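Possible regression after last week's pipeline update?

I re-ran a chain I had predicted before the update to compare outputs. Posting the input and the new output here so someone can diff against the archived version. Not blocking, just want to make sure nothing changed silently.
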Amino acid sequence: MKKPGGKKFDEKISDNSVWITATPTSLAKALPFYIIETGRFTAQKDYIVERETHDSFLLLYTVNGRGFLQTGETELTLGGNDAVIIDCHLPHRYGSITDEWEFLWLHFGGICADTMFDIIYPSNAVCAVQINDPFGFERRMTGLGEKAENNNITGHTDISLDIHSVINTVCSSALERISESPGNDIRLSIDFIKNNYSEQITIDDMIRDMPVSKYHFIRLFRRVMGNTPYRYLTNYRINMSKTLLRSTDKSVAEIAEMCGFLDTSNFIAHFKRHTGQKPLAYRRDFMQPKVYPGTDNI
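New output (post-update):
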């Protein structure tokens, strides 16, 4: 829908700006994500949008020029290839800085919208994210508008998937830049864990080749991996023990030692806490043939 008449287009945007609205059905609202409206604007210098609240989340992506954003206590300048997501339930204000600010935008909702926002911006620490694949990102954003008028079931699920892909790109770009910045290469610690999980290793061992403090490392690791280093190590040991329980006849004590647990009882306690079963019960579930009513044994 290209610049129809009405209040929306009394704003200072060019004639070739595009605005597409959608009315989500009850089915769409039950999906992880749904589209409310989207578009591509070329805004003039005095273009400003200011709201106290709006029942959505908003993704802004700058194609050319520069804009500004104010949300909560955060003030940002948005340049080329910058993406940002804001919670529009809070007061917000954005507009152009340069004579022309060309940007793509998407108002969206969904049962997973809050969760993804919190993953990208813990503690609502909103910031601009440089997109690693701007061409692909812009293509997917534009494609959302083309699908918005398809109101059948396939259309709803396609749009939900595409919004997830767009948001995931923002998330992965943000986390990659954090984890791969100088001194913050989390991959080094992950590789260390994978190569040494059978030993008694500490956080000091994990950061041996990283010029960071223990506190910074723990905070960074949790931000990127979604878990503390200790819990990640324990989960990794549990996963390796599952493989050994299912693929070997080694005793529980042998597997506990091979996977770096302090002793057998410590292994059993951790295994049950993470899986709800003791190791031998887990092994039996996968080793015993299953019997289904009315069929032969499988």
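Follow-up from reviewer: compared with the archived run. Confidence is low (pLDDT under 50) at residues 1-9. Marking as no regression found.
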